[in-house]
Design the sequence.
């Protein structure tokens, strides 16, 4: 974790000294969200946030936690089916955006005869295949190398909760994200949780009470930015109420 | 006195800001990038929609003019080509105007313009819409020669304008982060020299000196000790600190 | 056309299941409002209402016009609601959605036609001059319950507003500025407030102050407007499902309690605001002088 955060504004030039120093000379520099390369070698930021770098991966990006979700290839998201057209479902990643396509055949074991039937407004856990700015994002529910679903597919039952994009990233980052509340809760009650990069959290705890308690606990951790100690306290309070 | 701001305070909009300065209070909200209606779709760039809504009454041609000015200025700083075929929707709701606003004798749409620009920029920052640079803007009023003092007033309050009685001309300047003039709106009678003086004064108030600390101390009219770009940086620093507070929480 | 995004099937089923088990998503009781907050602006007649995440600002402004020829002794009072994309991208300026039409219709019935404001007191010279009062309702943030919040905002703003005094000499009227004479409050005849009930499961379950998600799942709604004396000003029902007349009676009973609470809340906020304005008792002294 960076010791001091470098705060940047749009249009700020990132000096070479702030960029990661690659371990191998050959490895190209990767620019993440919020950075723009103007040839030959000017790098400027396009959004307001803090500059983060990863020396091992030779990558730099801007960390921010506000605004609408923008799809990027490889992201795991919870999409809402809007309509079903010909060969694909049109899905919404966030409300009021243009739809993304999810082909009928990109489900595990789907063939022309056994294509999945998804009514409008059902939820699907999918991966973004590509997200070019000039085309509609493309989604899939199978791993292209194995043909297996790897946990992706339609989400049945449960409830969705809105969390901030930063929280979704933290939940997906595992231990680095610093979310301890789920571990503590998971020790006592059983529930299933699905995190979409687009700020959607799907919880299925079997009963209304458990589902709500888990979902609301995560939302509270997000809104109040609870640290680990406070999270454990919250989890215990939630468990007592169940 | 620096403007008071509150970022991301609306829960529904993608980005929002409440801005209060010199009695002007404006709420700005940004939705985007969202789906654009067919008729407004541009194949290579994002469509920008600006709505200025007055505190009382329905929008008048004056508000339409302000919308056009804000729209044209923002179009040059939003990286519209990186989000083509989408819509960035900016709504600026004027909440209150200073009490004396009607009696200053200055074109009210010019007086409010810097505040609208700042509000929309803050809302865009809050929505994380890709921008090529930031903008800062300020109002400069030149009093008529026979009143004292005849030096231009930098970022005057409505009360200052009333006290100065006759204002010969008013100018609004907006600068980008790299000190380029983005917008100039002037109203009244003025010579080229006067305009030049006003422009220099505005640049000093808006843009940070590249080399040093860059705080001009002598120029503050109403105790405005900080330069506008520094103020903007401070606002963003607070935003980042707020978003990352979980890292240090226990 | 941009539309409010539909709620997912999972959420719909879950909310219904939860209601079946007597649980609301935010843990509220069925007949509980979300936390209500009311802030008055620096100027007279601006009320900023927060109801949970919903936020509405009402603003009263005044002008002088010629009264309508058929109503010579009445002033003009108008409530304007126009949604902007600020509250939701589904709202477009100049193209009212159903929600907007319903909101303006209900406010019209609840406040204007119930004679909450004594329009005769707005008359300056019969047939020649009168005040035109205008209430602008701005929806800032939308999470359901717009009607209840807007009604609170308009009523609070009306009670907070002060109109300039006038001096009438024969055929001539002069509007006195704030500096010349302390502006005077409007004459409010009663304070109608709206309570919306959303019903589910064929009228078996009634929710007070539904949020947006609950509004999207409900079968219909009933809006009861009454004042704190229990006088019903209007009842409106939207949505197709049938309901029991006894349930409606029950709704009015619940509404009365809510309206009483809200009236008390508004009154307390008004008093707090008056105290704040009256710093050092200077205002009292001035108004005492002006009373003569």
Sequence:
């Amino acid at each position: 974790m960076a010791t001091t955060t470098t705060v940047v504004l749009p249009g700020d030039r990132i000096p070479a000294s702030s960029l990661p120093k690659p371990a191998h000379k050959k490895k190209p520099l990767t620019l993440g969200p919020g950075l723009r390369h103007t040839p030959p070698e000017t790098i400027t930021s396009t959004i307001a946030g803090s500059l983060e770098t990863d020396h091992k991966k030779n990558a730099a990006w801007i960390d921010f936690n506000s605004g609408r979700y923008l799809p990027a290839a490889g992201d795991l998201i919870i999409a809402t089916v809007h309509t079903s057209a010909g060969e694909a479902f049109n899905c919404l990643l966030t409300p009021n955006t243009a739809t993304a396509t999810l082909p009928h055949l990109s489900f595990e074991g789907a063939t022309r005869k056994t294509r999945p039937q998804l009514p409008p407004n059902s939820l699907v856990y999918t991966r973004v295949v590509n997200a070019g700015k000039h085309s509609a994002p493309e989604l899939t529910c199978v791993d292209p190398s194995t043909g297996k679903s790897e946990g992706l597919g339609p989400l049945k039952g449960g409830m969705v909760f809105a969390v901030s994009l930063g929280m979704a990233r933290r939940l997906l980052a595992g231990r680095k994200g610093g979310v301890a509340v789920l571990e503590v809760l998971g020790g006592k009650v059983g529930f299933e949780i699905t995190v979409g990069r687009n700020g959607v959290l799907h919880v299925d705890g079997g009963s209304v009470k458990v589902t709500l308690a888990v979902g609301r606990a995560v939302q509270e951790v997000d809104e109040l930015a609870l640290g680990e100690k406070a999270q454990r306290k919250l989890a215990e309070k939630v468990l007592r109420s169940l | 006195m620096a403007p008071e701001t509150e970022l991301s305070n609306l829960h529904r909009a993608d980005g929002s800001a409440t801005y209060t300065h010199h009695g002007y209070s404006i709420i700005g909200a940004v939705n985007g990038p969202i789906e654009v209606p067919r008729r407004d779709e541009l194949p290579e760039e994002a469509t920008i929609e600006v709505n200025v809504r007055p505190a009382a009454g329905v929008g008048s041609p004056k508000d339409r003019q302000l919308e056009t000015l804000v729209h044209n200025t923002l179009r040059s700083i939003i990286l519209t080509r990186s989000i083509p075929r989408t819509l960035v929707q900016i709504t600026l709701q004027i909440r209150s105007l200073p009490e004396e606003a009607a009696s200053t004798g200055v074109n009210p749409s010019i007086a409010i313009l810097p505040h609208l620009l700042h509000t929309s920029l803050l809302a865009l920052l809050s929505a994380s819409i890709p921008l090529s640079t930031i903008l800062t803007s300020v109002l400069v009023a030149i009093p008529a020669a026979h009143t004292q003092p005849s030096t231009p007033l930098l970022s005057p309050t409505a009360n200052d304008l009333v006290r100065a009685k006759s204002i010969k001309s008013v100018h609004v300047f907006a600068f980008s982060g790299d000190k380029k003039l983005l917008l100039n709106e002037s109203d009244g009678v003025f010579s080229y020299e006067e305009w030049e003086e006003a422009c220099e004064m505005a640049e000093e108030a808006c843009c940070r000196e590249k080399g040093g600390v860059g705080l001009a101390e002598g120029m503050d009219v109403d105790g405005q000790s900080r330069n506008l770009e520094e103020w903007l940086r401070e606002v963003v620093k607070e935003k980042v600190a707020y978003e990352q507070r979980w890292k240090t929480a226990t | 056309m941009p539309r409010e995004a539909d709620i997912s099937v999972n959420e719909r089923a879950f909310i219904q299941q939860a209601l079946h088990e007597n649980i609301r998503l935010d843990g509220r009781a069925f007949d509980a409002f979300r936390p209500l907050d009311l802030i008055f602006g620096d100027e007279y007649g601006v009320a900023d209402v927060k109801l949970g995440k919903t936020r509405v600002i009402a603003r009263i402004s005044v002008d002088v016009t010629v009264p309508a020829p058929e109503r010579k002794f009445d002033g003009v009072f108008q409530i304007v609601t126009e949604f902007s994309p600020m509250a939701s991208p589904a709202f477009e300026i100049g193209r009212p959605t159903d929600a907007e039409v319903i909101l303006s219709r209900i406010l019209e019935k609840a406040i204007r036609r119930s004679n909450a404001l004594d329009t005769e007191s707005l008359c300056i010279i019969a047939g020649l001059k009168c005040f035109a009062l205008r209430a602008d309702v701005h929806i800032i943030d939308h999470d359901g319950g717009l009607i209840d919040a807007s009604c609170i905002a308009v009523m609070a703003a009306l009670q907070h507003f002060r109109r300039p005094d006038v001096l009438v000499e024969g055929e001539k009227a002069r509007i006195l500025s704030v500096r010349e004479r302390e502006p005077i409050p409007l004459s409010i005849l009663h304070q109608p407030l709206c309570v919306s009930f959303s019903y589910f499961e064929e009228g078996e379950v009634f929710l007070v102050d539904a949020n947006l998600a609950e509004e999207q799942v409900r079968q219909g709604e009933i809006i009861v407007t009454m004042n704190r004396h229990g006088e019903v000003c209007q009842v409106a029902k939207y949505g197709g499902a049938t309901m029991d007349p006894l349930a409606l009676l029950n709704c009015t009973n619940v509404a009365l309690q809510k309206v009483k609470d809200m009236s008390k809340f508004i009154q307390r906020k008004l008093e707090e605001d008056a105290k704040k304005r009256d710093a050092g008792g200077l205002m009292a002294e001035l108004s005492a002088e002006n009373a003569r």
